[in-house]
Design brief:
The protein has 85 residues and is an all-alpha fold. 68% of the residues lie in helices and 0% in strands.
Length: 85
């Protein structure tokens, strides 16, 4: 079926947001016209969409790896002071 124009814009933005000046949240609102929470909600859904992977596999895989890393950290628990035993 393919991705909607808004979904492509979200993936395009996520691929290159770091090159923009200013806060990411402000850029999301200015460039995409959505709130940060709406952006991240849609971005999370796109990570499991095969059409999103077909459109931008590098960005989707990078974000999937980051999500998996966070999940593993939550499961394993994080230490307040990792240098102590």
């Amino acid at each position: 079926m393919g991705l909607a124009r808004r979904d492509r814009a979200i993936l395009d933005f996520e691929r290159s947001w770091w090159a923009r000046s200013g806060p990411k949240e402000a850029a999301i609102r200015n460039e995409l016209g959505v709130s940060g929470s709406q952006y991240y909600q849609r971005l999370r859904a796109l990570l499991d969409d095969p059409s999103a992977y077909a459109y931008d596999p590098l960005t989707v895989k990078r974000l999937q790896r980051r999500r998996e890393h966070r999940r593993r950290g939550q499961i394993a628990g994080t230490r307040a002071d990792p240098g102590t035993r």
